[in-house]
Specification:
Radius of gyration: 21 Å
Distance between the termini: 52 Å
CATH superfamily of the largest domain: 4-hydroxy-3-methylbut-2-enyl diphosphate reductase, catalytic domain
Helix content: 25-40%
CATH architecture of the largest domain: 3-Layer(aba) Sandwich
CATH class of the largest domain: Alpha Beta
Number of strands: 12
Oligomer: single chain
Strand content: 15-25%
Order of helices and strands: EHEHEEHEHEHEHEHHEHEEHE
CATH topology of the largest domain: Cobalt-precorrin-4 Transmethylase, domain 1
Structural class: alpha/beta
Number of domains: 3
Length: about 325
């Protein structure tokens, strides 16, 4: 089909795509394959992007959900989302050789949880139930221990349902890929309910998540469609879509070009494109190429924050 628009103005968000933690995790898998040869086992998807996972699988990475699926004595890479203490113990029991690709910003949250637990705080985790980062962070505390004291809240209703004695020391931490606005609302509700609650010295929301959300907010006023490149299981990518929709700007997530429907461009004059922190730039370029098949395009790279963050690779 052809699009009934003479020309579409496309704005490319900056920054977009890979963050330092994702780039580091992918490098770790590739370096491990180069050093030890295939197969290299990875516990959970190392980052949440189907294109990246398929690329690494083709190079010899094998992704598993359970440690018991890995042959004893093999190398195992822990994903960028981090893992629980139980998973690490299972790896030792199974005689595996661990390589930790946990994002350093997630490791920061793990350290916060362990410190607060040692100081006898009840910890409130703000995050999405079932997300591997949340499982890894909450798994810093043995849930079967009689002293286990960590609760998960996903929204304001969960805050209302909390039943923690007001005299207890209480702290909170956050999943690193959440919506800044939603997290802020939850923290305010927690502080209202528990005035003595304490949080981390600096926000747990990662710099890349914040930067990508800030750009989308700036694009809302003069764009009539926002397309986010990313996979459905990518929390940070979904939050970008949510921000646009919550502000009445049409938006959707696209994982591969087979999902692209040119009808979405009908009567659109200005389209914004961004990519979640786990989505590679190659997919953004494929999307632009796809759009050009249906209409003439005026392409503009927006100015934005230059991200200079890098994370050291582990020794292995």
């Amino acid at each position: 089909m052809t699009v009934d628009t003479k020309i579409i103005n496309i704005s490319l968000a900056n920054p977009r795509g890979f963050c330092a933690g994702v780039d580091r995790a992918i490098q770790i898998v590739k370096l491990a394959l180069k050093k030890y040869g295939a197969p290299i086992y990875v516990r959970h998807e190392v980052v949440h992007n189907k294109y990246v996972i398929e690329e690494l699988r083709n190079e010899g990475a094998i992704f598993v959900d359970e440690i018991k699926q890995i042959p004893s004595g093999s190398h195992v890479i822990f994903s960028a989302h981090g893992v629980s203490k139980l998973v690490k113990q299972q790896s030792r029991d199974h005689n595996l050789i661990p390589i930790d690709a946990t994002c350093p910003l997630v490791t920061k949250v793990h350290k916060e949880v362990n410190k607060m637990y040692d100081e006898n705080y009840h910890i409130i985790m703000i995050g999405h139930q079932g997300h591997p980062e949340v499982e890894g962070t909450m798994g810093q505390i043995d849930q079967n221990s009689p002293n286990a004291s960590i609760s998960l809240v996903q929204d304001l209703n969960d805050v209302e349902q909390l039943n923690i004695h007001a005299d207890k020391n209480i702290s909170y931490v956050s999943q690193t890929t959440l919506s800044l606005d939603d997290t802020d609302k939850i923290i305010k509700a927690l502080k209202k309910k528990y005035p003595r609650i304490i949080g981390p010295k600096t926000s747990d929301i990662c710099y890349a998540t914040q930067n990508r959300q800030d750009v989308i907010k700036k694009m809302l006023a003069d764009h009539d469609l926002i397309i986010i490149v990313g996979s459905a299981n990518s929390s940070n990518s979904n939050r970008l879509v949510d921000i646009a929709k919550e502000n009445n700007v049409k938006s959707f997530l696209i994982d591969n070009m087979d999902m692209f429907d040119p009808a979405c461009l009908q009567n659109k004059k200005k389209v914004g494109i961004s990519a979640g922190a786990s989505a590679p730039e190659v997919l953004v370029q494929q999307l632009i190429k796809k759009i050009k098949q249906y209409t003439e395009v005026n392409l503009v790279e927006l100015d934005g924050v230059e991200e200079k963050v890098t994370f050291k690779l582990p020794a292995f």
